[in-house]
Amino acid sequence: MTIQWYPGHMAKAKRQMVEKIKQIDVVIELVDSRIPLASRNPLVEEIASGKPRLLIMNKIDMADRQATQQWKHFFETEGVTVHLVNSQTGQGVSTLPDAVHKLTAARRKKLEDRGFRPHADRALILGIPNVGKSTLINRLAGKKIAKIGDRPGVTKAQQWIKVGSTMELLDTPGILWPKFDDPQVGLCLAATGAIKEELLDFQEIAFFLLKTTLHHYRQSLADRYNLDSLPELTGTGEDQDKLVQLFDEIGKKRGCLMSGGYIDYDRVSEIIIRDYRSQKLGPLTLEWP
Ligand code: GDP
Question: Which atom number of ligand 1 is nearest to the Cα of residue 60?
Answer without folding.
Answer: 23
